[in-house]
Amino acid sequence: MDINYSILGAGAMGTAFGARLTLAGFNVELLNRSPAQSQAIAKHGLLATINGQQHILKVAATTVEKASPADVVIIFTKSFQIKPALEQLPASLQNAQIITLQNGLGNGAQVAAEVGIERTIEGVTMMPAQLLKPGEVVSSDAAETWLYHATGKPDALTDQVGADFNLAGITTTVTPAVHNFIWQKASFNVAMNALCGLIGASPGMLDHFPDGKAFAHDIATETLVIAKASGATVDEEKVHSLIEYACANHLRHKPSMLQDLENQRSTEIDALNGYIVDLADTLGLDAPLNRMLTRLVRLKQVAPTFWKS
Predict the structure, then answer these.
(1) What fold does the segment set 179-301 form as a domain?
(2) How many CB atoms lie within 10 A of CB 83?
(3) For the domain bounded by 4-176, which CATH number is listed?
């Protein structure tokens, strides 16, 4: 079947996915709350640099309330925006399957709570992307993406989505072990994002100062203990190798949490380090590094409001 895709939250990741699917000939509409993205694309087209090649793409883009009907909605909002975003879906998207590929833990459960488990597909992606400005995105190698239906049962539409993603150059595996891969990326993000956000660092800066990189590995080790206790099977060596790779190769990359803090926006701390703390408490375990980072990021988030009062 030919699937019509909507991408809800067309920031860096959403726009990069939309660009790749459009290049492969799939029907895609980019949706944002702000009209800036759709206005830029309507005026100039979507300028997408994919694996070093620049493309000007004609792609539909609009605000959420004006969305066209779609079979599948890929949601790329922040984790804390899932509930309001799905509550405000227009009638044109009320029957669509919802795919969550967002950073963090617990996103699938959030989506299922809003639209039902039968309409929920869980996943995670390692694809790098950067939105330079509205209507202009850069994405290098698509890396890997994993998907599965939230019911835990084989599903024809999920299989088709996986096939479409692969045709679009988004290396995708449809696997019932998807939660292990969600945990793998989350363990990496838990180790890197809050740390970089708090000290204003890039992964490359951590590499230049041994205490920085060692601290990231310590956070990952603590997180992996919680993951294992919760029943997840995570490749611990892979998580630590991801930290090493990022520190060695992402010299001046600003992780999303650092960008959010610099721009005085809410972060995803509750879906990352905060989630680990809550889970550790439920399991009767301790997570002192994650607890400290969670408290510090929450304090840093509210500091601008304090100084303005």
Answers:
(1) N-(1-d-carboxylethyl)-l-norvaline Dehydrogenase; domain 2 (1.10.1040)
(2) 14
(3) 3.40.50.720
Amino acid at 217: H
Edge-to-edge strands, sheet with 120-125: 60-63, 27-32, 4-8, 72-75, 97-100, 120-125, 145-149, 172-174
Give me 103's structure tokens. 């950073």
Half-sphere exposure of residue 101: CA atoms within 13 angstroms, side-chain side: 30
- Where in the chain are all domains bearing CATH 3.40.50.720? 4-176
pLDDT tens-digit readout, 175-215: 999 999 999 999 999 999 999 999 999 999 999 998 999 99
Distance CA 178, CA 129 (A): 22
The residue assigned the tokens 């309001």 is 84
* pLDDT one-digit tens code per residue, 228-246: 999 999 999 999 999 999 9
Residue range(s) of every CATH 1.10.1040.10 domain in the chain: 179-301
Q: Are 47 and 39 in contact (CB under 8 A)?
A: no
Q: How many residues does the chain have?
A: 309
How many of the other CB atoms lie within 10 Å of CB of 282? 11
β-strand 97-100 against 120-125: which pairing, if any?
parallel
